[in-house]
Protein backbone atom coordinates (compact mmCIF):
# COMPACT_ATOMS: atom_id res chain seq x y z
CA UNK A 1 0.00 0.00 0.00
CA UNK A 2 1.36 3.41 -0.96
CA UNK A 3 2.15 5.55 2.05
CA UNK A 4 -0.51 8.27 2.28
CA UNK A 5 1.66 11.38 2.54
CA UNK A 6 0.97 14.55 0.57
CA UNK A 7 2.37 16.42 -1.14
CA UNK A 8 4.63 13.96 -2.89
CA UNK A 9 8.31 14.60 -2.21
CA UNK A 10 10.86 14.65 -5.03
CA UNK A 11 13.30 12.95 -2.63
CA UNK A 12 10.90 10.08 -1.99
CA UNK A 13 10.00 10.68 1.65
CA UNK A 14 6.38 9.80 0.82
CA UNK A 15 7.57 6.17 0.48
CA UNK A 16 9.09 5.99 3.96
CA UNK A 17 7.26 3.66 6.35
CA UNK A 18 9.62 3.86 9.31
CA UNK A 19 10.90 5.90 10.95
CA UNK A 20 8.67 8.82 10.06
CA UNK A 21 10.61 11.93 9.12
CA UNK A 22 13.45 9.98 7.48
CA UNK A 23 14.49 10.08 3.86
CA UNK A 24 14.48 6.78 1.95
CA UNK A 25 18.20 6.12 2.26
CA UNK A 26 18.39 6.21 6.04
CA UNK A 27 14.90 4.80 6.57
CA UNK A 28 14.62 1.32 7.98
CA UNK A 29 11.69 0.41 5.74
CA UNK A 30 10.15 1.88 2.60
CA UNK A 31 6.95 1.19 0.70
CA UNK A 32 7.88 -0.88 -2.36
CA UNK A 33 4.42 -1.01 -3.96
CA UNK A 34 5.26 -1.37 -7.68
CA UNK A 35 3.20 1.52 -9.00
CA UNK A 36 4.53 4.83 -10.33
CA UNK A 37 3.09 7.85 -8.58
CA UNK A 38 3.05 11.23 -10.31
CA UNK A 39 6.70 11.99 -9.51
CA UNK A 40 8.13 8.49 -9.94
CA UNK A 41 9.46 6.14 -12.61
CA UNK A 42 8.65 2.43 -12.49
CA UNK A 43 11.12 -0.08 -13.92
CA UNK A 44 11.19 -3.79 -14.61
CA UNK A 45 14.42 -4.89 -12.94
CA UNK A 46 16.70 -7.37 -14.69
CA UNK A 47 19.96 -7.25 -12.73
CA UNK A 48 21.13 -6.04 -9.35
CA UNK A 49 24.78 -5.11 -9.02
CA UNK A 50 25.35 -5.52 -5.28
CA UNK A 51 28.16 -3.23 -4.16
CA UNK A 52 31.44 -4.98 -3.45
CA UNK A 53 31.53 -4.51 0.33
CA UNK A 54 27.94 -5.66 0.72
CA UNK A 55 28.26 -8.65 -1.59
CA UNK A 56 31.43 -9.84 0.15
CA UNK A 57 29.72 -9.62 3.53
CA UNK A 58 26.66 -11.53 2.30
CA UNK A 59 28.76 -14.13 0.52
CA UNK A 60 31.03 -14.66 3.53
CA UNK A 61 28.05 -15.05 5.84
CA UNK A 62 26.47 -17.50 3.39
CA UNK A 63 29.67 -19.50 3.04
CA UNK A 64 29.78 -18.71 -0.67
CA UNK A 65 26.56 -20.63 -1.32
CA UNK A 66 24.55 -19.02 -4.13
CA UNK A 67 21.19 -20.19 -2.79
CA UNK A 68 21.95 -18.79 0.65
CA UNK A 69 23.05 -15.49 -0.88
CA UNK A 70 19.82 -15.30 -2.89
CA UNK A 71 17.76 -16.11 0.19
CA UNK A 72 19.47 -13.35 2.18
CA UNK A 73 18.82 -10.75 -0.51
CA UNK A 74 15.16 -11.78 -0.76
CA UNK A 75 14.83 -11.61 3.01
CA UNK A 76 16.33 -8.11 3.14
CA UNK A 77 14.03 -6.81 0.40
CA UNK A 78 10.94 -8.36 2.02
CA UNK A 79 11.87 -6.89 5.39
CA UNK A 80 12.96 -3.42 4.31
CA UNK A 81 11.38 -2.81 0.89
CA UNK A 82 14.86 -2.19 -0.55
CA UNK A 83 18.26 -3.89 -0.81
CA UNK A 84 19.94 -2.23 2.16
CA UNK A 85 22.58 -4.37 3.88
CA UNK A 86 22.14 -3.76 7.60
CA UNK A 87 25.77 -4.75 8.29
CA UNK A 88 27.63 -2.67 5.69
CA UNK A 89 24.94 -0.02 5.26
CA UNK A 90 25.38 -0.22 1.48
CA UNK A 91 23.37 -1.48 -1.48
CA UNK A 92 24.36 -1.30 -5.13
CA UNK A 93 22.41 -0.39 -8.28
CA UNK A 94 20.19 -1.98 -10.91
CA UNK A 95 19.63 -2.40 -14.62
CA UNK A 96 16.05 -2.36 -15.80
CA UNK A 97 13.56 -1.24 -18.40
CA UNK A 98 11.22 1.72 -17.93
CA UNK A 99 7.57 0.63 -17.83
CA UNK A 100 5.81 3.74 -16.47
CA UNK A 101 6.58 7.42 -15.98
CA UNK A 102 4.53 9.58 -13.62
CA UNK A 103 2.65 12.57 -14.99
CA UNK A 104 4.95 15.12 -13.34
CA UNK A 105 7.98 13.61 -15.11
CA UNK A 106 6.38 13.02 -18.49
CA UNK A 107 8.05 16.09 -19.99
CA UNK A 108 11.56 14.72 -19.47
CA UNK A 109 13.30 14.28 -22.82
CA UNK A 110 16.06 11.94 -21.62
CA UNK A 111 13.88 8.93 -20.86
CA UNK A 112 10.93 7.10 -22.37
CA UNK A 113 8.91 3.97 -21.73
CA UNK A 114 10.88 1.00 -23.03
CA UNK A 115 14.31 2.53 -22.41
CA UNK A 116 16.86 0.26 -20.78
CA UNK A 117 18.64 2.15 -18.03
CA UNK A 118 21.08 1.75 -15.18
CA UNK A 119 20.16 3.42 -11.92
CA UNK A 120 22.87 5.70 -10.59
CA UNK A 121 21.41 5.92 -7.11
CA UNK A 122 21.95 3.38 -4.38
CA UNK A 123 19.67 0.42 -3.81
CA UNK A 124 19.65 1.58 -0.18
CA UNK A 125 17.11 4.25 -1.16
CA UNK A 126 15.37 2.47 -4.07
CA UNK A 127 11.98 0.86 -3.40
CA UNK A 128 12.39 -2.67 -4.73
CA UNK A 129 10.05 -5.64 -5.06
CA UNK A 130 11.52 -9.00 -6.08
CA UNK A 131 9.46 -11.84 -7.51
CA UNK A 132 12.46 -14.13 -7.94
CA UNK A 133 16.23 -14.33 -7.99
CA UNK A 134 17.25 -16.38 -10.99
CA UNK A 135 21.05 -16.27 -10.96
CA UNK A 136 23.86 -15.21 -8.63
CA UNK A 137 27.37 -14.57 -9.93
CA UNK A 138 29.94 -14.98 -7.17
CA UNK A 139 32.71 -13.53 -9.31
CA UNK A 140 31.02 -10.22 -10.11
CA UNK A 141 28.37 -9.60 -7.45
CA UNK A 142 25.72 -9.36 -10.16
CA UNK A 143 22.35 -10.95 -9.46
CA UNK A 144 19.74 -11.70 -12.14
CA UNK A 145 16.25 -11.03 -10.84
CA UNK A 146 12.62 -10.53 -11.77
CA UNK A 147 11.07 -7.58 -10.03
CA UNK A 148 10.17 -3.91 -10.01
CA UNK A 149 11.90 -0.77 -8.74
CA UNK A 150 10.95 2.86 -8.25
CA UNK A 151 13.07 5.89 -9.10
CA UNK A 152 12.16 9.22 -7.51
CA UNK A 153 12.19 12.61 -9.22
CA UNK A 154 15.61 13.23 -7.64
CA UNK A 155 16.95 9.90 -8.86
CA UNK A 156 19.65 9.79 -11.50
CA UNK A 157 20.07 7.17 -14.18
CA UNK A 158 21.93 6.51 -17.42
CA UNK A 159 20.81 5.08 -20.74
CA UNK A 160 22.91 2.02 -21.43
CA UNK A 161 25.57 2.61 -24.10
CA UNK A 162 25.39 0.74 -27.40
CA UNK A 163 29.11 -0.03 -27.64
CA UNK A 164 29.54 -2.02 -24.42
CA UNK A 165 28.00 -5.29 -23.21
CA UNK A 166 25.28 -4.63 -20.64
CA UNK A 167 27.09 -6.43 -17.81
CA UNK A 168 30.26 -4.47 -18.50
CA UNK A 169 28.41 -1.15 -18.49
CA UNK A 170 26.75 -2.10 -15.20
CA UNK A 171 30.10 -2.97 -13.63
CA UNK A 172 31.57 0.37 -14.69
CA UNK A 173 28.60 2.52 -13.73
CA UNK A 174 28.48 0.90 -10.29
CA UNK A 175 31.84 2.54 -9.48
CA UNK A 176 31.51 5.65 -11.65
CA UNK A 177 32.26 7.97 -8.74
CA UNK A 178 35.83 6.72 -8.34
CA UNK A 179 37.37 7.71 -11.69
CA UNK A 180 35.37 10.94 -11.77
CA UNK A 181 36.62 12.03 -8.35
CA UNK A 182 40.21 11.04 -9.16
CA UNK A 183 39.94 13.15 -12.30
CA UNK A 184 39.03 16.10 -10.06
CA UNK A 185 41.52 15.49 -7.28
CA UNK A 186 44.72 14.27 -8.96
CA UNK A 187 47.05 17.02 -10.14
CA UNK A 188 49.90 17.03 -12.68
CA UNK A 189 53.13 15.89 -11.08
CA UNK A 190 51.40 14.45 -8.01
CA UNK A 191 51.85 11.06 -6.38
CA UNK A 192 48.63 9.05 -6.21
CA UNK A 193 48.27 5.85 -4.18
CA UNK A 194 45.35 3.53 -4.94
CA UNK A 195 44.58 0.95 -2.26
CA UNK A 196 42.70 -1.98 -3.77
CA UNK A 197 44.08 -1.09 -7.19
CA UNK A 198 43.20 -4.50 -8.64
CA UNK A 199 39.41 -4.14 -8.26
CA UNK A 200 37.10 -2.52 -10.79
CA UNK A 201 37.01 0.87 -9.06
CA UNK A 202 40.75 0.66 -8.37
CA UNK A 203 41.64 -0.08 -11.99
CA UNK A 204 39.57 2.83 -13.29
CA UNK A 205 41.05 5.07 -10.59
CA UNK A 206 44.57 4.07 -11.66
CA UNK A 207 43.73 4.83 -15.28
CA UNK A 208 42.49 8.31 -14.42
CA UNK A 209 45.42 8.92 -12.09
CA UNK A 210 47.86 7.95 -14.85
CA UNK A 211 46.22 10.44 -17.19
CA UNK A 212 46.11 13.25 -14.66
CA UNK A 213 49.55 13.10 -13.02
CA UNK A 214 51.39 12.90 -16.34
CA UNK A 215 55.02 11.91 -16.88
CA UNK A 216 56.20 13.91 -13.87
CA UNK A 217 53.84 12.19 -11.47
CA UNK A 218 53.70 8.79 -9.83
CA UNK A 219 50.98 6.20 -9.37
CA UNK A 220 51.35 3.50 -6.72
CA UNK A 221 49.00 0.57 -6.23
CA UNK A 222 48.47 -1.53 -3.13
CA UNK A 223 47.08 -5.05 -3.65
CA UNK A 224 46.98 -8.23 -1.55
CA UNK A 225 48.19 -10.42 -4.41
CA UNK A 226 50.47 -9.21 -7.17
CA UNK A 227 49.93 -12.27 -9.37
CA UNK A 228 46.27 -11.71 -10.30
CA UNK A 229 45.50 -10.78 -13.92
CA UNK A 230 44.29 -7.32 -12.93
CA UNK A 231 47.36 -6.58 -10.80
CA UNK A 232 49.70 -7.77 -13.55
CA UNK A 233 47.83 -5.68 -16.12
CA UNK A 234 48.38 -2.51 -14.09
CA UNK A 235 52.12 -3.20 -13.93
CA UNK A 236 52.62 -4.48 -17.46
CA UNK A 237 50.76 -1.59 -19.10
CA UNK A 238 52.35 1.12 -16.97
CA UNK A 239 49.29 2.19 -15.03
CA UNK A 240 51.33 2.03 -11.84
CA UNK A 241 54.96 2.96 -11.29
CA UNK A 242 55.17 0.72 -8.24
CA UNK A 243 53.00 -2.02 -6.79
CA UNK A 244 53.01 -2.75 -3.06
CA UNK A 245 51.89 -6.29 -2.35
CA UNK A 246 50.57 -6.35 1.20
CA UNK A 247 47.39 -6.73 3.23
CA UNK A 248 46.11 -3.18 3.63
CA UNK A 249 44.55 -4.17 6.95
CA UNK A 250 48.10 -4.52 8.29
CA UNK A 251 49.44 -0.97 8.35
CA UNK A 252 52.88 -2.05 9.58
CA UNK A 253 53.26 -4.41 6.63
CA UNK A 254 52.45 -1.63 4.19
CA UNK A 255 54.72 0.87 5.94
CA UNK A 256 57.73 -1.36 5.25
CA UNK A 257 57.28 -0.80 1.50
CA UNK A 258 56.40 2.90 1.56
CA UNK A 259 59.89 4.48 1.59
CA UNK A 260 60.86 2.80 -1.68
CA UNK A 261 57.49 3.11 -3.43
CA UNK A 262 56.59 6.61 -2.22
CA UNK A 263 59.63 8.42 -0.74
CA UNK A 264 57.62 11.58 -0.14
CA UNK A 265 54.30 9.82 0.53
CA UNK A 266 51.19 10.42 -1.58
CA UNK A 267 49.46 13.67 -2.36
CA UNK A 268 46.25 11.68 -2.92
CA UNK A 269 45.30 8.30 -1.49
CA UNK A 270 42.25 6.55 -2.98
CA UNK A 271 40.81 3.69 -0.90
CA UNK A 272 38.92 1.21 -3.11
CA UNK A 273 38.92 -1.91 -0.93
CA UNK A 274 35.86 -3.97 0.03
CA UNK A 275 36.89 -4.85 3.58
CA UNK A 276 37.14 -2.82 6.77
CA UNK A 277 40.26 -2.06 8.77
CA UNK A 278 42.24 -0.20 6.09
CA UNK A 279 41.65 3.34 7.32
CA UNK A 280 45.02 3.78 9.11
CA UNK A 281 46.94 2.38 6.15
CA UNK A 282 45.28 4.98 3.93
CA UNK A 283 46.30 7.74 6.32
CA UNK A 284 49.93 6.66 6.82
CA UNK A 285 50.43 6.60 3.04
CA UNK A 286 49.37 10.24 2.74
CA UNK A 287 51.59 13.27 3.30
CA UNK A 288 50.55 15.98 5.73
CA UNK A 289 47.87 18.21 4.16
CA UNK A 290 47.31 15.64 1.42
CA UNK A 291 43.93 14.08 0.67
CA UNK A 292 42.56 10.64 1.48
CA UNK A 293 39.51 9.74 -0.58
CA UNK A 294 37.59 6.85 1.00
CA UNK A 295 35.62 5.43 -1.91
CA UNK A 296 35.25 2.13 -0.05
CA UNK A 297 31.84 1.48 1.49
CA UNK A 298 33.60 -0.53 4.20
CA UNK A 299 35.14 2.63 5.67
CA UNK A 300 34.57 3.47 9.32
CA UNK A 301 34.38 7.20 10.00
CA UNK A 302 35.37 6.56 13.60
CA UNK A 303 38.42 4.49 12.65
CA UNK A 304 39.53 7.12 10.13
CA UNK A 305 39.08 10.11 12.43
CA UNK A 306 40.63 8.53 15.51
CA UNK A 307 43.31 6.78 13.47
CA UNK A 308 44.55 10.08 12.03
CA UNK A 309 44.51 11.63 15.48
CA UNK A 310 46.33 8.67 16.99
CA UNK A 311 49.28 8.86 14.60
CA UNK A 312 49.36 12.66 14.45
CA UNK A 313 48.53 13.03 10.77
CA UNK A 314 46.99 16.26 9.43
CA UNK A 315 45.27 15.05 6.27
CA UNK A 316 42.08 15.97 4.48
CA UNK A 317 39.66 13.02 4.43
CA UNK A 318 36.81 12.77 1.95
CA UNK A 319 33.78 10.52 2.16
CA UNK A 320 33.43 8.54 -1.06
CA UNK A 321 30.50 10.28 -2.67
CA UNK A 322 29.32 7.89 -5.36
CA UNK A 323 27.99 10.82 -7.38
CA UNK A 324 29.78 13.56 -9.27
CA UNK A 325 28.45 15.65 -12.14
CA UNK A 326 29.05 13.70 -15.33
CA UNK A 327 30.49 10.70 -13.52
CA UNK A 328 28.79 8.14 -15.75
CA UNK A 329 30.25 9.74 -18.88
CA UNK A 330 33.71 9.95 -17.31
CA UNK A 331 33.69 6.33 -16.15
CA UNK A 332 32.52 4.89 -19.47
CA UNK A 333 34.96 7.03 -21.44
CA UNK A 334 37.80 5.97 -19.14
CA UNK A 335 37.09 2.38 -20.11
CA UNK A 336 36.93 3.23 -23.81
CA UNK A 337 40.19 5.19 -23.68
CA UNK A 338 42.19 2.33 -22.15
CA UNK A 339 42.03 -0.78 -24.36
CA UNK A 340 43.83 -3.09 -21.93
CA UNK A 341 41.40 -2.31 -19.12
CA UNK A 342 38.47 -2.40 -21.54
CA UNK A 343 39.43 -5.89 -22.68
CA UNK A 344 39.88 -7.06 -19.09
CA UNK A 345 36.42 -5.80 -18.10
CA UNK A 346 34.81 -7.44 -21.13
CA UNK A 347 36.52 -10.75 -20.40
CA UNK A 348 35.62 -10.66 -16.72
CA UNK A 349 32.09 -9.27 -16.76
CA UNK A 350 30.59 -9.95 -20.18
CA UNK A 351 31.48 -13.63 -20.21
CA UNK A 352 31.01 -14.35 -16.51
CA UNK A 353 28.94 -17.44 -15.85
CA UNK A 354 26.37 -17.58 -13.12
CA UNK A 355 24.52 -20.28 -11.27
CA UNK A 356 20.80 -20.78 -11.74
CA UNK A 357 18.96 -20.05 -8.50
CA UNK A 358 15.25 -20.91 -8.73
CA UNK A 359 14.49 -19.06 -5.50
CA UNK A 360 11.19 -17.27 -4.92
UniProtKB/TrEMBL annotation:
| Superkingdom of the source species | Bacteria
Q: What InterPro entries does its record include?
A: KDD_N, NAD(P)-bd_dom_sf
**Residues covered by the L-erythro-3,5-diaminohexanoate dehydrogenase N-terminal domain:** 14-161
Q: Name one Pfam family in it.
A: KDD_N
- Name of the protein described by the UniProt record: L-erythro-3,5-diaminohexanoate dehydrogenase
What would be the name of the gene that encodes this protein? kdd
Amino acid sequence: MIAAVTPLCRLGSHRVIEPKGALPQNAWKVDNTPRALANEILCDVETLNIDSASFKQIADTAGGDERAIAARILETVRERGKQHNAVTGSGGMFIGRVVAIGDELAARDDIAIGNRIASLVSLTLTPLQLDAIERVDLATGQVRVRGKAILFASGIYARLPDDLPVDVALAVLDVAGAPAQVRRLAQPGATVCVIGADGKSGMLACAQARERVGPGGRVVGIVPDGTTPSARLLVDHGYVDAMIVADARNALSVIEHVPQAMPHLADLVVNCVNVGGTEVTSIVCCRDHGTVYFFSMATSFTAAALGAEGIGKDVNMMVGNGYAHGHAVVALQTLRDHPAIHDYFVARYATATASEIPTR
